[in-house]
């Protein structure tokens, strides 16, 4: 299947920015869509953003629209999540996911994002 490894998480003050990266391997990267999800302690995993195979279409959760940007580089097998104007409620473990078979079926281990107030 697909192996995914996230990086770029950390501790940032409210209003700051972080850029998450996800490296993919195992299948031809340009053949599947990618997404970012997050899970805070005691909460269910929630959708954050998604991007189509060629990067031409993106979709965002209402809670991050206008602040987060998802992008991909098919030549490097990478997907990114640029997060600006971060809020404490954005604190969570962020996972990238690959939609190899149509739904998101491959997941990375996650990277922790903590936003202090």
**Tally of separate helices:** 0
Output the radius of gyration: 13 Å
Mean pLDDT: 97
Secondary structure tally: strands: 11
User: How is the main sheet built?
Assistant: 7 strands, mixed
> How large is the share of residues in beta strands?
over 45%
Task: List the secondary-structure elements in sequence, H or E.
Answer: EEEEEEEEEEE
The low-confidence parts are none
Q: How would you sum up the global shape? A: globular
Range of helix content? under 10%
Structural class: mainly beta
Distance between the termini: 39 Å
Structure description:
With 117 residues, the chain is an all-beta fold. It is built from no helices and 11 strands. Strands 2, 4, 5, 6, 9, 10 and 11 form a 7-stranded mixed β-sheet that branches. The protein is globular and about 40 Å long. The N and C termini lie far apart (39 Å). The model has no long low-confidence stretch (mean pLDDT 97).
Tell me briefly what this model is:
The protein contains no helices and eleven strands. With 117 residues, it is mostly beta strands. The strands form two sheets. Strands 2, 4, 5, 6, 9, 10 and 11 form a seven-stranded mixed sheet that branches. It has a four-stranded antiparallel sheet with strand order 1-3-8-7, with no helix packed on it.
């Amino acid at each position: 299947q697909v192996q995914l490894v996230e990086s770029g998480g950390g501790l940032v003050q409210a209003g700051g920015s972080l850029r998450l990266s996800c490296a993919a391997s195992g299948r031809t990267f340009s053949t599947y869509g990618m997404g970012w999800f997050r899970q805070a302690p005691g909460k269910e995993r929630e959708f954050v953003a998604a991007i189509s195979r060629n990067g031409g279409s993106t979709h965002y959760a209402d809670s991050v629209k206008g602040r987060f940007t998802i992008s991909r580089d098919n030549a490097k097998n990478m997907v990114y999540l640029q997060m600006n104007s971060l809020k404490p409620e954005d604190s969570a473990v962020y996972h990238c996911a690959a939609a190899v078979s149509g739904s998101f079926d491959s997941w990375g281990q996650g990277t922790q994002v903590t936003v202090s107030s």
